[in-house]
Amino acid sequence: MMSTRARDRVRAPVGVRRLVLAVLVAAGASACGMEFGGGDPDKGGGRRAVPPTVVSTAVVATGDVDELLEASGTVEARAAADLSPETTGRVTEVRVEVGDRVRKGEVLAVIRNETAQGGAARAADEVRHLKATLAELESLFGQGAVSAREVEDARYNLDQATLRLSEARATEADTRLVAPFAGVVAVRDVKVGEVASGGARAVQVVDPSELRVRARLPEQDLGRVSVGQTARLRSAYDDTQEARATVTRVAPVVDNTSGTFEVLLELDKDQQVLRPGQYVRISLVVDRREGVLVVPREAVRYEEGHAIAWRVEPAPPEEPSEDEASEQDAAADGEASAESAESSERPEDTGPELVAKRVRIGVGLVDEARAEVVDGLDAGDEIVTVGHASLRDGSRVRRPKREADGDGDGDATAARDDAADEDAG
User: Fold this and answer.
1) Of 288, 320, 336, which marks where a domain is finished?
2) Domain that holds residue 310
3) In terms of domains, do 197 and 267 share one?
4) CATH number of the domain enclosing 219
5) What is residue 383's DSSP assignment?
6) Helix and strand tally (H, E) in the chain?
7) What count of other Cβ atoms lies within 10 Å of the Cβ of residue 212?
8) Is residue 53 part of a domain?
9) Are the C-beta atoms of residues 95 and 109 closer than 8 Å to each other?
10) What are the 10-residue block averages of pLDDT along the chain, 425 residues in total?
11) Model pTM above 0.90
12) DSSP state of 351
């Protein structure tokens, strides 16, 4: 049988082990608390130590939203002419440059053709001779010296010569390039001294005041497009270049090889933004709803095929635990003396504490800027527009200081930039 002293020697190490175990448990609890919610008790626990996500927000309001069909096309002038000489000859004059405005009937270039110009000169001489001959015969006929038949033959010869002169002058005119309408010189492909051949384009004239675009849309949209609908055109390479257009013609047939139909849109007259030849994106308005609940398009997110939005709400009050309450009471006396020193180190106050709540919403029409909300949100709700990436249901959020204060447009832009930086991080 073991003696009492021996039993004490055995029990002593057990007590030490229990003490060490207790210390380890306390240390583990402290470490877990710092990571998952313990943190600095003066700041209300580890959850408060995690900084809120900076977000930019907007308010749900009523507005108008359009349903759009997207297409593309190339701007073309309604009036455009490629001018080429009817005869071959050497260019003697070029009177215009690219970009020059011209009047209808203005001579743009002159081409020398010896045959055409010589024929016109010969025909003119013949007409002058026959006119003199006819005048002389008419005088002699009055004196009874010639017959009426001779006078009639002279008149016939003069008529035929006059026709030949008209034809020769028309041929000679083919050596002059003349503007068929008022417009702008778009292309000049000839130079003085070179030989211009008939059929080759020498000058192109366009009228930039009347432009249009031809677009092709899929067959399933045929019943949704009609004359009079409006569209917005934007340069494919510069969104700031924008113009309005109106549907003026819808093709009555569908191309069976491509399954598309053609739509002709005419730009607003005398617009100065888009030019012939530009490739543009077309947003055609086929439906419009007015006075409905709308949110910025970027506020709508999709998760597992469902549309959601993040609604900003006041954070629920947090009930301190008994231990936290005791610690807060113990620290209350020291807070007053340290308040002035800590105030300089605290971050700027951005208003009451807020949280983001995930809300499933129903979405109707969506255009380039807005989305119609048919379910899930009410007018006046505040929603997140920038800063969604790191949000979880109930995440603490804050607005950037300038956005919270409601400063001007420049500050709002800076606020969105701050939120975007937070989202990227």
Assistant:
1) 288
2) 40-65+292-424
3) no
4) 2.40.30.170
5) E
6) 7, 23
7) 18
8) yes
9) yes
10) 47 50 48 43 48 91 90 92 82 89 91 64 78 82 80 83 72 74 91 80 90 94 92 91 94 93 92 91 90 93 92 80 55 48 46 86 89 93 91 89 53 46 48
11) no
12) S
